[in-house]
Amino acid sequence: MTHEIAVIPGDGIGKEVTPAAVEVLESLDIDFEFIEAEAGDAVKEETGEALPQETYDLAASADATLFGAAGETAADVILPLREAVDSFVNVRPAKAYPGIDAVRPETDLLFLRENTEGVYSGHEDRLTDDVSTLTRVVTESASERLAEFACDFVADSDKHDSFTIVHKANVMRETDGLFRDTVKSVADEQGIETDEVLMDAFATRVCLDPEQFDVVVCPNLAGDVLSDLAAGLVGGLGLLPSANIGPERALFEPVHGTAPDIAGENVANPAAKIISAAMMLEYLGYEEESEAVNAAVEATLADGPRTPDLGGDASTEDVTAAVIDRL
Ligand code: ATP
Ligand code: MG
C-alpha cells in the first residue's frame, strides 16, 4: 500500500530540515509517494497567497503531511493547514535527550492539547476605545473527542497507563468545568485512571519535579503555554517535534520556526523534523520503524555528529547521513 505524503517545506530552515526528514523516510523499506507543495513567505511574494489552494487541497487529501516552517505568514499557513487535516489534538512530546543540556534532564512528558477551541477560536471585540472582550468556546463534543483520543492512546501504550487533566475549573467553572467533567467522565467510562491539577499549580510542580507527570491533557491555551514551558525544561525548542492529528489524516511539524539567522547555511539541526517524521511513522502504523528512527536520532544526538546549535561543526546533511547510517 502506497502512502501519499504531502511535503510542505515552507520558508527558512524548513527548506533544509524537511528534505532531511524525507531522506530518512526514503531510506526505509516503506512505499511512500512524496508530493511537494509551496506555502509561506516566498510563495506569497510570488503569487500574493501564503497558502495556495492546491497546497491546502493536497494536505486535505494526503494520508499525512510533513510541514517545515513559515515565516511572517505562519498564522496564515499553519492555522488553515491544521484545519485542512481537521486536527482536533496537538500532540507534543517534551523529552530530554541524553547528552543534551537540559534544565531538568529527567523530563519525559507528552502533552495532548485541544486544538480547535478555547480562546483561540474565541471571539474578540473592542467595545469602546478602552474596553475589549474575549468570548471563549468549550464544547462537550470537542472535549469528548480529545478524551477519547487520550484514552485510546494510553490504552494502546506499553509506557503509559493514566493521564493528568490540567485545567482552571475552580475559576472558569463553565468552560474549564465542562472540559474537566467531560474528559473525566469519558476516562471513567473507559476505565482509564486520571488525576487533575490546576494549571497554575502544574506550572510550578512540573518545574520542580517533572517526573511526577507523564501524559498531560489540557485545553488549548494552557496546552500551548505549558508545553512551551516544558520545552524550556528539556533544553529549548530546537529538538521538539509535534503532531496535529485529525480523524482521517495528520500533519507533523517541528516546534521550532524558520530560524532566519541560520537559514540557507546548511547548519540547521534536522533532529526535530526527523523526530516529527518518526511520529508520522507511528501514526501510519510503522511502530518498529518509528522506534528505529528515534533510536538513530538519539544515538546521533548523544555521540555526534552535531550541528553548531549543539556545540558541533557538522552540517544538516552530515547529521542526516549519520542518522541514516545508524538505521
Ligand atoms: P520564526 O519567526 O519563524 O519562529 P524565529 O526567529 O523565532 O523564527 P525559531 O525557528 O523559532 O526562530 O528559533 C529560534 C532560534 O533558535 C533560531 O534563531 C535559531 O538560532 C535556533 N534554532 C531553532 N531551530 C533550530 C534548528 N533546527 N537548528 C538550529 N538552530 C535552531
Ligand atoms: Mg519562533
From TrEMBL:
SMART domains registered for this protein in UniProt: Iso_dh
Gene Ontology terms for molecular function: isocitrate dehydrogenase (NAD+) activity
SUPFAM superfamilies: Isocitrate/Isopropylmalate dehydrogenase-like
GO biological process: isocitrate metabolic process; tricarboxylic acid cycle
Top-level taxon: Archaea
Every Isopropylmalate dehydrogenase-like domain range: 4-323
Key word Oxidoreductase present: yes
Keywords, ordered alphabetically: Oxidoreductase
Entry coiled-coil feature ranges: none
Matches recorded under Gene3D superfamilies: Isopropylmalate Dehydrogenase
Family (UniProt): Belongs to the isocitrate and isopropylmalate dehydrogenases family.
Name of the protein in its database record: 3-isopropylmalate dehydrogenase
UniProt source species: Natrinema limicola JCM 13563
